[in-house]
Amino acid sequence: MSELIGADDLALLATGFEAAMAEAPGPGEADQALCDLGWAELLEAAPTQGAATAFSALGKSNSAASLLDDVVANALGTAVSPDTCVVFPSPHQATAPAQRRGDTVMIDGLVSARVHRADTAVLAVGSGDGTEAATVDAALLHLSVAEGVDPGHAYRKVSGEIAANALTPLATGGTWEAAVAAARSALAHQLIGGARWMLVEARQHAIDRVQFGRAVASFQAIRHKLAESLVLIEGAESVAEACLHDPDPMLAALAKSLAGQAALTTATHAQQVLAGIGFTAEHQFHRWMKRTLVIDTLFGSARSLPTEIGYHLLECGTAPRLIQL
Amino acid sequence: MDTATFRRELEAWLDANTEELTPPYEGAGTMDEQLAHYSHVKRALYDAGFGRYGWPESVNGLGGSPLLRAIVGEEINLRGLADPSPWTMIEVLGPTVIDFARPEIAASLVPPFIRGDEMWCQGFSEPDAGSDLASISCRAAKTDGGWVVSGQKIWTSFIQYAQRCVLLVRTGEPGSAHRGITALLVDVDSPGITFSPIETMHGRHDFAEVYYDEVFVPSDRLIGEENGGWQVAMDILPYERSTTFWHRGALLHRRCSDLVAQVAALGDRSDTAAKALGQAFQSLVAFRSRSRDTQHRLAGGQQLGVETSIDKILITSAELELFEAARDLLGGVVEFDDDLDAAMWRTDYLYSKAAPIYGGTAEIQRNIVARRLLDLGPDS
Question: Quick check: pTM over 0.80?
Answer without folding.
Answer: yes
